[in-house]
Write a structure and sequence with these properties.
Structural class: alpha/beta
Mean pLDDT: 88
CATH architecture of the largest domain: 3-Layer(aba) Sandwich
Largest sheet: 7 strands, parallel
Order of helices and strands: EHEHEHEHEHEHEHHEHEHEHEHEHEHHH
CATH class of the largest domain: Alpha Beta
Number of domains: 2
Radius of gyration: 22 Å
Number of helices: 16
Distance between the termini: 21 Å
Shape: globular
Low-confidence stretches: 1-15, 408-430
């Protein structure tokens, strides 16, 4: 079938003339806390748009942390597979997701299924969608380290999701370039920005409790010397389990002793492998606060309060620069190079001495700290969810090509190399 080309004004209203068509049913699936954070703005935007009828399905790959995020954003899932089991393996998660999602998709037959990022939930849902011939929409598509073991298993999860997706919502032009290198059709890629920034704007503005009463009292206490500087630490990645994670714990302990005027806050992941590695070195240190994982709203507020962030989290690499915080990443590679190039993020690895040296340099040198703290935001402008909805509408012939997230350049990473083509489904008119 030849689809005629229609010249569309990207700035034209998108609700008319497509609102007379029945709404498209879209099943949005996520299973972990990071997915929930990044999916919530898209769910809200879909619910507001008469062209769509979203259904929220959670796999429960995470449990309590997932439920906390749903509460923050007012989302009550329509379906909960509740696959989480103590001691679950990647195989357990994969099988549980695949069986449960196949059942739901075959029963409901949605027009599309949305997956987010690079979790095992994202990959298996994309695979189930492909098996059921339901178009897969990949939110946060195109991130790459080009190291299949780092992060593990996320790098393979997202590569496989790319092969299964019909529409790729790339957060940055760098992500778009990665997809083009893998021969993804450019007409099926839209640069939206990252929905994590949409969510962060909402969460920080709400100023929710930290989620730990002792921490709340300590950080809210007034001091004649002004607010106490805070080093916020998170670490959980699977590829760092064992000695690298233990080295992180020892490095944080050395930093706490070297800088007693800093308050070190470490919300520790519930995985016992992580706790057994990091906690022994951190016991009985007066300026270290070990907490349970904080609710998303409280954690967003804590990031905003922090002086410096030390993390292996992908999401925090995006959120910290958006808040003007220096971020040191406990990894050797990153799928988010934009902030590294901008100078607000630095890779420091997991070697104990290297971590101590990198953090000390930022604390000791005000110029370095100020340079890294510049509020450079290469990841989004708070409009990613809206662009995602517009991209979905365009894909199904219900709207024009959306405006895309900048900044734009002419080096092959901006709109000069974007090939505008008609929607791959149906015929649109403007």
């Amino acid at each position: 079938m030849i689809v005629p080309t229609v010249e569309c004004d990207p700035s034209a209203p998108s609700a008319s003339p497509w609102t007379d068509d029945p709404p498209l049913t879209v099943t949005v699936v996520y299973g972990t806390r990071p997915e929930a954070v990044k999916t919530a703005p898209l769910v809200a935007a879909l619910r507001k748009d008469p062209r769509f009828e979203p259904l929220v399905l959670v796999t429960g790959q995470h449990r309590e942390m997932l439920d906390q995020v749903n509460e923050v954003f007012g989302i009550v899932p329509d379906v909960d597979l509740d696959i989480h089991r103590a001691g679950q393996t990647l195989t357990d998660v994969t099988v549980g997701c695949l069986v449960g999602i196949e059942r739901e998709l075959s029963l409901r037959r949605p027009d599309a299924v949305v997956v987010q990022g690079d979790t095992t939930t994202a990959f298996t849902v994309a695979l189930a969608g492909f098996y059921q011939r339901v178009p897969v929409i990949h939110l946060e598509a195109g991130l790459r380290t080009n190291d299949v073991h780092g992060p593990f298993p996320e790098e393979i999860n997202r590569r496989l999701a790319t092969q299964l997706a019909a529409l790729h919502l790339a957060p940055t032009w760098e992500s778009r370039r990665n997809l083009l290198r893998e021969n993804v059709d450019p007409s099926r890629i839209v640069v939206t920005g990252n929905t994590v920034i949409d969510a962060l704007h909402q969460a920080v503005g709400a100023r929710r409790p930290y989620g730990d009463d002792a921490l709340e009292a300590e950080l809210e206490a007034e001091s004649d010397a002004g607010p106490r500087p805070v080093l916020l630490v998170t670490a959980h990645r699977r590829e760092s389990w064992g000695e690298p994670m233990a080295g992180i714990g020892r490095a944080v302990a050395r930093l706490a002793r070297r800088y007693p005027h800093y308050l070190v806050v470490f919300p520790v992941h519930r995985n016992p492998i992580v706790r057994e590695a990091v906690l022994p070195a951190l016991r009985d240190l007066a300026n270290v606060r070990i907490t349970e994982p904080l609710p998303y709203g409280g954690f967003a507020r804590l990031m905003d309060r922090a002086t410096l962030i030390l993390t292996d989290s992908g999401g925090v690499q995006e959120e910290g620069p958006s808040l003007g915080k220096p971020v040191l990443v406990l990894r050797d590679t990153t799928e988010r190079p934009e902030a590294v190039r901008a100078g607000t993020v630095a890779l420091v690895g997991t070697a104990e001495d290297a971590v101590v040296a990198a953090v000390s340099k930022v604390i000791d040198d005000p110029e370095v700290r100020a340079r890294m703290a510049r509020a450079v935001n290469p990841y989004g402008d708070g409009q990613a969810a809206r662009r995602g909805v517009e991209a979905l509408a365009h894909h199904f012939g219900r709207g024009p090509w959306p405006d895309e997230f900048g900044p734009f350049r002419t080096d092959g990473s901006g709109p000069d190399d974007v090939r505008r083509v008609p929607s791959p489904v149906g015929t649109a008119s403007c």
